[in-house]
């Protein structure tokens, strides 16, 4: 069993914000596999599906970003999922808009949702897929809770599609193959 978690904040007020690109990736995967992320498990909404011949739980924590670890740890314990089989998809303002990056583990990098997950799992050794939302031109909290401009939305939507494709590749071909393909790509309009 694999757990794919998209981070975001629940509720209409946060839909479409930069901080919710993780939710957007989960929703796109659910749509591709003809399911809906509606079933409750602890403090998350989930869907069960099969991707690349693997049983997968798609999850959207409903705890708000800073407490995401509560929902992730609950699912992992209940379903007996090892941290190495958890992939977390989330926004990163340190990456240019449209870039995606895959890593096998590492620090939270200042992201409060990731800090919560690392704390609750007791390890930072789990894969993650970061989606670039561009750097803040204002306070960080205002930036992550803002919506994309029309021009940015097009780039963000392409990044969300790339991220969903990358999740599928991770499940079918492994983390290293996906890293080799997507970490080298110049997806987006900015250069690092």
What would you say about this model in short?
This protein is of the alpha/beta class and 192 residues long. The chain is built from 6 helices and 7 strands. The protein has a 7-stranded mixed sheet with strand order 2-3-4-1-5-7-6, sandwiched between helices.
Question: What would the keywords be for this entry?
Answer:
192 residues; alpha/beta; Rossmann fold; 7-stranded mixed β-sheet; 6 helices; 7 strands; globular; disordered C terminus
Summarize the helices and strands and which ones pair or pack.
Layout: E1 2-6, H1 21-32, E2 39-41, E3 44-51, E4 54-61, H2 68-79, E5 86-92, E6 100-103, H3 112-121, E7 128-132, H4 140-144, H5 150-173, H6 175-182
Parallel strand pairs: 1-4, 1-5, 5-7
Antiparallel strand pairs: 2-3, 3-4, 6-7
Helix pairs in contact: 1-5, 2-3, 5-6
Describe the structure.
There is one protein chain. The protein has helices at residues 21-32, 68-79, 112-121, 140-144, 150-173, 175-182, and strands spanning 2-6, 39-41, 44-51, 54-61, 86-92, 100-103, 128-132. It has 6 helices and 7 strands. It has a 7-stranded mixed β-sheet, with helices on both faces. The N and C termini lie far apart (35 Å). Mean pLDDT is 93; it is low at 188-192. A hairpin with a 2-residue loop joins β3 and β4. The radius of gyration is 15 Å and the shape is globular. It is α/β, with parallel strands linked by helices. The chain has one domain (2-182): Rossmann fold (3-Layer(aba) Sandwich).
């Amino acid at each position: 069993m694999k757990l794919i978690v998209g981070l975001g904040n629940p509720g209409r007020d946060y839909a479409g914000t930069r901080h919710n690109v993780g939710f957007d990736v989960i929703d796109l995967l659910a749509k591709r596999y003809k399911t809906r992320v509606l079933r409750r498990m602890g403090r998350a909404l989930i869907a069960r599906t099969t991707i690349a011949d693997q049983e997968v739980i798609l999850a959207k924590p409903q705890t708000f970003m800073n407490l995401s670890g509560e929902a992730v740890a609950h699912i992992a314990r209940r379903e007996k999922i090892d941290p190495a089989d958890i992939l977390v998809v989330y926004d990163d303002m340190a990456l240019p808009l449209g870039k995606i990056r895959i890593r096998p583990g590492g620090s939270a990098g200042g992201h409060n949702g990731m800090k919560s997950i690392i704390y609750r799992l007791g390890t930072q050794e789990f894969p993650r897929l970061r989606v670039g939302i561009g750097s803040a031109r204002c306070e960080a909290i205002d930036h992550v809770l803002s919506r994309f401009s029309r021009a940015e939305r097009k780039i963000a939507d392409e990044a969300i599609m790339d991220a969903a494709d990358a999740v599928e590749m991770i499940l079918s071909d492994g983390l290293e193959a996906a890293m080799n393909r997507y970490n080298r790509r110049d997806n987006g309009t900015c250069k690092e």
